[in-house]
């Protein structure tokens, strides 16, 4: 468990543990860390972390961090943030990431840069407006499946999409007015469902 202060993993190679409780402080994973079982992510990550079991996220901060979900992850409150550096979120092929937070933001990178790659299944589950906002130099890439099951999922960042967006009845997928031409739905991409696709800007 990491509850405060800073805990550094280094020495060369990679490391595997069965559980992780990051409820405060900073995990500095200089050596790549893999968690095979349950994980609680509510502190700051620097370095490389892969979770393979069930993960619960509340206020998860990246500072030059790279988090890969290979299991089932749920953002239950607040959002994923960035306090600096180059950051990466990857929802791997075969993985599921549920956005079930009441916060206006699902991911907000006010400082630093970020890339959010979805190759698995990303589910927007909460009512209300929720934005993936990574900044003007960052992007959200979807090669997998995004299910907007409730509320509005707003894409407030650059992005290239070759995967599928499925919008349930009563739900909305929207892009943001923050950028002039931030979104490219490439060959092979699709938008399905009986919901609303709202376009403010893009190609």
Provide the descriptors you would attach to this structure in a database record.
single chain, 203 residues, nine-stranded parallel beta sheet, 63% strand, globular
Would you tell me the structural class of the helices and strands?
A: mainly beta
Query: Kindly state the mean pLDDT as a whole number?
Result: 90
Instruction: State the end-to-end distance.
Output: 45 Å
Q: What count of helical segments does DSSP give? A: 0
Oligomer: single chain
Overall body shape: globular
Reading the helices and strands in chain order gives EEEEEEEEEEEEEEEEEEEEE
Name the helicity range. under 10%
Uncertain regions spanning at least 5 consecutive residues: none
Describe this structure in words.
- The chain is built from no helices and 21 strands.
- It has strands spanning 6-9, 15-17, 20-22, 26-35, 39-41, 44-51, 54-57, 60-69, 72-75, 80-91, 96-99, 105-118, 121-124, 129-142, 145-148, 152-161, 164-167, 172-175, 183-185, 190-192, 196-198.
- Strands 1, 2, 4, 6, 8, 10, 12, 14, 16, 18, 19 and 21 form a twelve-stranded parallel β-sheet that branches. It has a nine-stranded parallel β-sheet with strand order 3-5-7-9-11-13-15-17-20, with no helix packed on it.
């Amino acid at each position: 468990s990491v509850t405060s202060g800073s805990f550094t993993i280094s020495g060369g190679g990679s490391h595997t543990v069965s559980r992780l409780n990051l409820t405060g402080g900073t995990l500095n994973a200089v050596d790549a860390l893999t968690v095979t079982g349950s994980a609680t992510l509510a502190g700051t990550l620097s370095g490389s972390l892969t979770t393979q079991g069930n993960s619960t996220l509340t206020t998860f901060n990246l500072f030059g961090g790279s988090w890969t979900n290979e299991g089932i992850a749920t953002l239950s409150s607040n959002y994923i943030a960035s306090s600096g550096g180059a950051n990466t979120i990857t929802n791997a092929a075969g993985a599921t990431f549920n956005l079930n937070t009441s916060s206006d933001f699902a991911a907000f990178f006010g400082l630093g840069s970020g890339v959010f790659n979805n190759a698995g299944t990303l589910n927007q589950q909460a009512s209300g407006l929720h934005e993936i906002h990574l900044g003007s130099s960052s992007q959200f890439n979807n090669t997998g499946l995004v299910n907007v099951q409730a509320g509005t999922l707003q894409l407030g960042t650059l992005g290239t999409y070759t995967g599928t967006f499925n919008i349930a009845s009563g739900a909305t997928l929207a892009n943001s007015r923050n950028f002039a031409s931030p979104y490219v739905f490439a060959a092979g991409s699709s938008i399905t469902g009986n919901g609303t696709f709202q376009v403010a800007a893009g190609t």
